[in-house]
């Protein structure tokens, strides 16, 4: 059973979450380390953990979209190719690789979102290049393996 004192501690910790996130985080870590589980603000902690997962997935989605956009621009505007585009392509691949090193289970997520990210990249490519949208294929001309391959560049 939870005592009134423990309920008050959890309530205070919940208030701390709203007032000083970093202090809440430090306090929560210390409570868990000391096995003081009854006074942990579980509701906000679980929300934060779920948010971390969403953030990782959103980061992958964003990076994959930017990578596909620049691969399309590289392929369809060869006269505009620049070191800047190559740097962006390399950086997006590197950052995706870093996420996958920490969370290899997210590789299957990339497969799930490839088509959706490609559609966004296709629209953005049309906007950025001034080329008609139908210039770009309806489906990604790049496999996921090609997209992530540091040695691949479309010609």
Can you put this structure into words, describing what you see?
The protein is an all-alpha fold. It folds into 2 domains: 37 residues, no CATH class; 95 residues, no CATH class. Helices cover 72% and strands 0% of the residues. The protein has 6 helices and no strands. The model has no long low-confidence stretch (mean pLDDT 91).
Looking at the structure, what is the overall shape? elongated
Q: Count the strands? A: 0
Largest sheet: none
* Number of structural domains: 2
> How many alpha or pi helices?
6
H/E element sequence? HHHHHH
- SSE class: mainly alpha
Give me the Rg, rounded.
22 Å
Please mark out the parts with pLDDT under 50 across 5 or more consecutive residues, or reply none: none
Mean pLDDT: 91
Chart the SSEs and their pairings.
Layout: H1 4-19, H2 21-33, H3 42-76, H4 83-102, H5 107-129, H6 144-148
Helix pairs in contact: 1-2, 3-4, 3-5
Keywords:
mainly alpha, elongated
Short description:
The chain has 155 residues and is mainly alpha-helical. It has helices spanning 4-19, 21-33, 42-76, 83-102, 107-129, 144-148. The chain folds into two domains: 4-40, no CATH class; 54-148, no CATH class.
């Amino acid at each position: 059973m939870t005592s009134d004192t423990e309920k008050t501690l959890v309530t205070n910790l919940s208030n701390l979450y709203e007032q000083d996130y970093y202090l809440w985080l430090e306090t929560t870590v210390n409570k868990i380390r000391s096995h003081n589980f009854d006074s942990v603000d579980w509701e906000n902690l679980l929300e934060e953990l779920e948010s971390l997962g969403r953030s990782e997935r959103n980061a992958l989605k964003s990076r994959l979209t930017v990578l596909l956009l620049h691969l399309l621009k590289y392929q369809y505007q060869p006269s505009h190719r620049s070191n800047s585009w190559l740097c962006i392509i390399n950086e997006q691949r590197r950052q995706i690789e870093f996420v996958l090193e920490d969370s290899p289970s997210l590789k299957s997520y990339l497969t799930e979102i490839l088509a959706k990210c490609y559609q966004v990249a296709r629209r953005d490519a049309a906007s950025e290049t001034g080329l008609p949208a139908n210039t770009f294929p309806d489906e990604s001309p790049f496999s996921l393996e090609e997209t992530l391959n540091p040695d691949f560049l479309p010609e």
